[in-house]
Task: inverse folding
C-alpha cells in the first residue's frame, strides 16, 4: 500500500478532499481553461500541427498528471519550447500538414512518455542535473528568439520555412514582397495591445478602483480579448476574402483514442529527439514545480515527477496529441487563482473538453496572425539577456557553454544547440578540474590553521613541504599531480618530507591511486617521505582496500597541524642525535 | 631561437654529441634493428597490410621523431594496438589486399599526424587525461586478446575475417576443418620456443656463465632465431608446396615518397578513427616515454610529444606507411641497449632501410604462421587480468568503466569499446560528484579542528548547524545541495545559524551560485542566517563578482573555528540581552 502510494500521489490528497478545496480548485480551473484555449491553439501552430491537436494535448495529459504527479499546482500541456523541438524533430521526417506528420508527433509523445516512465522507475532523475543552469537559460532564450522569428511569417502573411534563424530569416526576406497588409495590421495591433495589457492595464484598472485579483485576471485574459476582437473584425470586414489566413474549420468533438503506429525505422529516427524533449521538458517542469512548491512549503519528488510527466505524454499520444510538459505561465496562473490540489487540473481538462466539443466553430474565423502575435509576446518574455550578462561577469567558462548553446540553437538547430551546450559544459568542467588549484601551505601563527603561503603570512619549515590539493583526485588530473609534485620537489633540495593535505580531496579513483603510488615511489628514490593529512573518512576507507597505505614511506595524520608538529619534533630529535654522534 | 628550440628538441642534444654517445647509440641501433625487422612485418600483418609496409613505417618516422621528439630513448614505429585499430578503420572502407586499402591506411596516418600536430600547436595534450587508467588498461588487455584471436587463423592456416571476437571465432570454427597440419606444427612450435626463451633461456644462459647483458640480448632475439629456423625448415622441407602460407616476394628497395590521395568522402569517414588512433597512440607513447625518462631523471614535454608523433605519422604517410607511435617493447630494448639520444632512432632507420633494400629476398620463404606466433606471444603479455582484479577491489565505478571497455572492445569493436569506456568513465565521474559527501561537523575537543559528528566525538551547539560540503559545487550537484540543506534544516527546529564549511569547495560555478542564492533566500524566510567559512582564495575572488556576498544574511569567516566561536559568543550575548529585558 505504501509502495502503491509512492507511485500514486493522488491517494495522498484525495482522502481529505473537502468542499472548500473543491470550490478553490473549480475557480482556478475556469480561469486556466480560458487561458489555455488560445495557448493550446498557438502552441500547436509552433509545432506545425493543426490547432485542434493543441486542444487534444490539453485534456487527457492533465488527468494523467492529476493522478501521478506530485506538484499540487503544476499545469501540464503543450509548451513553447517543446513545441519548437517537436516541429524540428518531426519536420525532418514528414511534410507539415501531412498525416505522417501528425502520426510522427504522436509517436514522439509516446516515446518521450515511455522514456520518462522508464527513467522514473529507475530513479534516474539526476540526469537532469547534467544540464547546467546557464545552458538551460541560454537554450530557453534562444528558443524564444527562434519561435518569435518563426511566427513572423504569420504576422506578415508570407510563406517561410526552416528550423534555424538564417533559414527562417532568408525565407522571409525572399517573400517579404508578398506581405498581406490586413494581416500585418492585425498582427501589429495585437502585439501592441498585448504589450499594453501586460505593461499598463493592471495599474490602470487598479487606478479605476478595481482590487488586485480581478485586475490581475483581466490582465491575463488579454489574449482572449484579442482573439474575440479579431474574430469579430474578421467577420465584419470579411478579412478572409482580403487574403488574411484564418484558422479555418476545426473538427468539433473529442479525439478517438488510438495507439500511434510503431514503424521501427521511425522509432529509431525519433528516439534521439524524444530523449532530448524528455530531458528538456522534465527540467522545465521540475523547476516550475519546485518554485511553486517552495512558496507553500510543499515538496515535490523529482523521480515521481518523471512518472507523472511520462503518464501525461503517453496519455497525450493516445489521444492524438503531441509532447507536453509542465508550463510556467499556466502553472503560475493556476497557483495565483488559488488551486489547491491536482484536481484543479482534472477540472481544467473537463473545461477544455467542453470547449473542444462546443466552441471550436467560433474559432474558424480567427486570424492566424492573432495567434502568432500572442506567441511572439509570450516567448519574447523568455529571452533573458540580463542572465547572459550576469554569467559573463561571473564565469567565463559558464559563459562559453551558454553562448555555444544560444548560437548553436539559433544557427544549427535546437537539438544540436542543446547537445553542444551540455557537451561543452561537461568538457569545460573536466578541463577546469584537470589542472586543479594546489597551494603550498604554512601555519597561521598562533592557530592550528594552515593557509596558502602566497596569500597569508604563515610559518613554514625548510625540510617540510606541505601541499594542499584543492580538488578530488581522479583520472583527469592525476598526471598533473605527478608533474606538480615533481616540479616542487626539484625546487627544494633540502626537502625531506612532503605532506599532502587532503582536506579538499573527496575522492581518489583508481587512476589517481596509481599516480599516488608512483609519486610515493619516486619520492622514496629521492630519499623523501610522503605523508598524508586530513584524509576524509570515505577516502580513507577506500585506500585501506589498496596497497598504498602499506607502501607509503610516511604516515597518515588526522590533521595538518599534527603532521607538521610530529615531523618537526622528529627532525629536531634526529638533529640532536646526529650532533651527539 | 628559444622558440625554435622549443619545437626542435634536436638542437638541445645535437650540440654536445660526442664519440662515446655515438658508439652507444650505434650499438643500441643495431640491436633494435634486428628486433624491429620481424616486428614490423608482423604488425603490418595485424593491420592487414603487405609486410613491406611495416618496414616502410619503421624508417622515416624514426628520423622525424629524432628531430621533433623529446624522449631520448623512445622507439617509434608500428605497434600492435594501433595496427589493430588501423585494420578496423580501413577494413570498413576497402577490401584487404586492394590498392584502396593501402591508400586508406596512408591517408589514416596523414590525418592522424595532422591531428597530433594541431593538438601539439594548440597545446591540447591534456585531452589524453580523459582516458582513465582503468580504461586504457582494459583497452590494451582486450586488444591483446583480440589480436591473439585474429592471428589464430594464420597458425591454423585457415581463412577467417571479422573485427570482433565473435566474428573471428565463428569464422575460425567454420573453417577449422581446413586446418593445414604443417602450418599448425610451425605455429605451435614457434609459440612454445618463444615462451621457452622468455621464461627459461635467460637463467639457462646465466647458468652457463654468460653475463647478464648478452644473455638479455640473446633472449630478446628469440623471434629472430625462430624466423631464421622456420625459413630454413621451409626451404629444406619445401613447406610452401605442402600448403604452408608464406610471406612471399617482398618488393626490394625503398618506398617512393608520395602524398596520399585526399578524397573528401574518405577523409570524412576516416577522421573519427584517426582521432581515436591519435589519442590512443599518444597515451601509449607518452606513458612509455615518461616511464623511461623518470628512470634517468630526464623529463619529456607531452605537448611537444604530440608534435613529435605528428611529424612521425606524416612521415609514415609520405613513405607508403601507416599509423605509428612509440612502442613499449622496442623502447625498453633501446633503453637497455644503452641508447643515449634520439640519434639512435635515426641509426635504426638506416638499419631498417638497408634491410628493406637487401634482406627482403631472404624473407620470401618465411611462413606467416611464424609471424603470427610471435604476435600471439607478444600481445598475450599485454593482457593484465591482475589489474582487472585490483580495480574491482578498489573501486566498483572504475571497474564498470574498465569492464565496459573490455567487453565493448571484444564484442563490438575497438572504436566502440574505447568510446564506451571514456563516455562511461566521464558519466560515472559526474554521477559520483552529483551526490557529494556532506558531513555535519563539530569541534574536536581541545583543538581547532572540526570533524564529522558521525565518526568522531565532537562538540556541537544546538543553534548552529555546521555543514562541510566535500565537493566542488557545480551544475551536477547544486540541486542536491539545496535538497540536503532543506532536509537538515527541517530536522532541527531550534536552528538559527547555518555555516557552510567550504574547505573542500574548489569551485562554485554559475549554477551553484544560483543555488546558494536560493538557499540563502529560503533560510532567510525561515529566520536562519547563512554563513560561509574557509572559502578558498580563488573561490572568494569569484564570489566578489556576484551579488551573493551582499545578499548573504550571515558572514564569511576565515576558519570554521572562528565562525563557531564568533556566532556562539554572539548568541550568548543575545540571550543575556533578552534576559535583561
Result:
Amino acid at each position: 500500500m505504501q509502495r502503491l502510494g509512492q507511485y500514486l500521489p493522488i491517494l495522498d490528497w484525495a482522502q481529505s478532499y473537502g468542499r472548500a478545496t473543491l470550490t478553490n480548485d473549480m475557480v482556478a480551473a475556469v480561469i486556466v481553461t480560458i487561458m489555455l484555449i488560445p495557448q493550446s491553439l498557438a502552441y500547436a501552430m509552433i509545432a506545425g500541427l493543426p490547432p485542434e491537436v493543441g486542444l487534444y494535448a490539453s485534456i487527457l495529459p492533465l488527468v494523467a498528471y492529476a493522478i501521478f504527479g506530485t506538484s499540487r499546482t503544476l499545469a501540464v500541456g503543450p509548451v513553447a519550447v517543446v513545441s519548437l523541438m517537436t516541429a524540428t524533430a518531426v519536420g525532418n521526417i514528414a511534410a507539415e500538414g501531412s498525416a505522417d506528420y501528425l502520426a510522427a508527433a504522436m509517436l514522439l509523445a509516446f516515446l518521450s512518455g515511455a522514456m520518462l516512465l522508464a527513467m522514473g522507475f529507475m530513479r534516474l532523475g539526476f540526469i537532469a542535473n547534467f544540464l547546467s543552469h546557464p545552458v538551460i537559460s541560454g537554450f530557453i532564450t534562444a528558443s524564444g528568439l527562434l519561435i518569435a522569428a518563426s511566427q513572423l511569417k504569420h504576422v506578415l502573411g508570407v510563406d517561410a520555412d526552416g528550423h534555424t534563424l538564417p533559414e527562417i530569416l532568408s525565407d522571409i526576406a525572399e517573400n517579404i514582397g508578398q506581405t498581406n497588409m490586413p494581416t500585418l495590421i492585425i498582427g501589429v495591433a495585437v502585439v501592441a495591445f498585448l504589450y499594453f495589457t501586460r505593461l499598463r492595464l493592471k495599474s490602470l484598472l487598479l487606478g479605476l478602483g478595481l482590487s488586485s485579483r480581478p485586475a490581475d485576471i483581466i490582465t491575463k485574459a488579454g489574449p482572449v480579448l484579442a482573439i474575440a476582437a479579431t474574430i469579430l473584425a474578421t467577420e465584419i470586414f470579411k478579412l478572409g476574402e482580403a487574403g488574411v489566413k484564418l484558422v479555418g474549420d476545426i473538427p468539433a468533438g473529442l479525439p478517438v483514442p488510438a495507439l500511434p503506429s510503431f514503424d521501427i525505422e521511425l522509432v529509431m529516427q525519433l528516439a534521439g529527439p524524444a530523449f532530448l524533449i524528455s530531458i528538456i521538458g522534465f527540467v522545465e517542469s521540475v523547476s516550475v514545480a519546485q518554485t511553486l512548491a517552495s512558496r507553500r512549503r510543499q515538496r515535490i519528488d523529482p523521480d515521481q515527477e518523471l512518472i507523472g510527466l511520462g503518464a501525461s505524454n503517453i496519455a497525450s499520444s493516445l489521444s492524438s496529441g503531441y509532447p507536453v510538459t509542465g508550463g510556467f505561465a499556466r502553472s503560475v496562473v493556476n497557483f495565483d487563482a488559488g488551486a489547491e490540489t491536482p484536481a484543479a487540473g482534472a477540472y481544467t481538462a473537463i473545461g477544455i473538453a467542453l470547449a473542444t466539443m462546443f466552441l471550436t466553430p467560433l474559432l474558424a474565423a480567427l486570424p492566424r496572425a492573432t495567434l502568432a502575435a500572442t506567441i511572439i509576446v509570450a516567448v519574447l518574455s523568455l529571452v533573458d539577456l540580463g542572465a547572459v550578462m550576469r554569467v559573463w561577469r561571473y564565469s567565463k567558462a559558464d559563459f562559453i557553454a551558454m553562448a555555444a548553446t544560444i548560437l548553436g540553437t539559433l544557427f544549427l538547430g535546437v537539438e544540436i544547440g542543446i547537445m553542444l551546450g551540455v557537451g561543452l559544459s561537461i568538457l569545460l568542467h573536466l578541463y577546469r578540474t584537470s589542472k586543479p588549484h594546489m597551494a603550498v601551505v604554512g601555519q597561521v601563527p598562533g592557530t592550528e590553521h594552515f593557509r596558502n603561503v602566497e596569500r597569508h603570512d604563515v610559518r613554514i619549515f625548510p625540510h617540510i613541504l606541505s601541499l594542499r590539493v584543492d580538488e578530488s583526485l581522479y583520472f583527469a588530473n592525476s598526471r598533473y599531480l605527478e608533474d606538480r609534485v615533481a616540479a616542487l620537489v626539484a625546487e627544494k633540495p633540502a626537502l625531506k618530507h612532503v605532506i599532502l593535505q587532503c582536506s579538499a580531496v573527496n575522492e581518489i579513483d583508481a587512476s589517481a591511486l596509481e599516480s599516488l603510488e608512483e609519486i610515493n615511489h619516486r619520492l622514496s628514490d629521492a630519499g623523501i617521505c610522503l605523508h598524508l593529512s586530513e584524509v576524509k573518512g570515505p577516502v580513507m576507507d577506500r585506500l585501506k582496500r589498496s596497497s598504498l597505505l602499506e607502501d607509503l614511506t610516511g604516515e597518515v595524520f588526522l590533521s595538518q597541524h599534527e603532521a607538521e608538529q610530529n615531523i618537526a619534533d622528529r627532525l629536531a630529535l634526529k638533529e640532536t642525535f646526529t650532533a651527539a654522534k
User: Anything to note?
Assistant: The beta strands of chain B are 76-77, 325-326, 438-443, 450-452, 464-469, 497-501, 529-533, 556-557. Residues 575-581 of chain B have pLDDT under 50 and may be disordered.
